[in-house]
Amino acid sequence: MSIPIIDSHIHLWNEAEAPSHNWYAPDSPLATRHSISEYREATSSSASQLSGFVYIEADRKNDDSKDWSEPLNELAWMRRIIEGTPQEGEGHTADNAKLCLGIIPWAPLASGLPKLKEYIATVEEQAGEAAWAKVKGFRYLLQDKPNKTGLTEDFIDGLKLLGEKGWVFDAGVDQHRRGRVQLEELVEIIDRAHDGVEDEDKKVVFIINHLCKPDLTIVSQTDPSFIAWRSAMFTLGKCRRTYMKLSGLFEEMPDSLKTQSAEQIFSAILPWLAVVIAAFGPERIMFGSNWPVCEVGVGEEAWKKWHKIVDMMCDMAGLSQEDQTMIWSGTAKKAYNLEG
What we know:
This protein is an alpha/beta fold. The protein has helices spanning 36-42, 69-83, 113-134, 153-165, 175-178, 180-194, 224-237, 255-258, 262-280, 302-316, 321-336, and strands spanning 5-10, 50-56, 100-104, 137-139, 168-171, 205-208, 242-246, 285-287.
């Protein structure tokens, strides 16, 4: 039986707007158009299984409390995809609209409740009915922000607002480059965001990106970095209403490993995969590709390679068909409240 796939983490942009991202460099392989036509080509090996994707904001330039123009331009781009109204050369068609199952725009979580409410009202106004219905939550990257950004009263109040309204928070932290403090702060953020919220259904859902970006350049499981990451995974796994994306690991590997076969990569990262399975269980893990970022240093076969690695993980863990279905699509449907 063919298991349906929901890709819980992709980014899209047209070439004209690529310079509006914080990560942009003219010589970057990501500086060209990466739209649904390119995504469909990358996923062609699993086209019959692919039910759709969740579009995650791609880190447009912004000023938290003053200038929201680029995140709102991205919203307009999301809207055109969902409504099937592409501008010339944007690389998507009306027929592609059904693939976009949900969107996670940026939001100014650190700017205080008045600004956050103003921004969300603007999103609702500018999204249009179809795209607004696809908004499943918001993201504000913590991986590149000063320590304790997510621990301010403003930030915690913003997270509680998301929970009250039924939106998720996509959490992006980076142990590889920022160290264990990012893991420790994420645990505290979740605890404080849920504290005092009596209605379980009003506690904000956290969807953690990329296994918190562990350092995959280390070779020993006795390395302090691995031990700290493993400990954090089991702590996070005990948190209520918290899910993990099985995504983004190519970016944390040494370049020499990225070009190896799926089998060799799987063998190298198995200790990390085993920890996540043990800590969260299939019912709280979801497949995500992090396309097109996953292709950097890996090549156009990156999506296919990552799919094979996750497939091998499912086999190695001896997961039942039901558990495999949760990882490939069921967990994403549940966590994001996706239709279909």
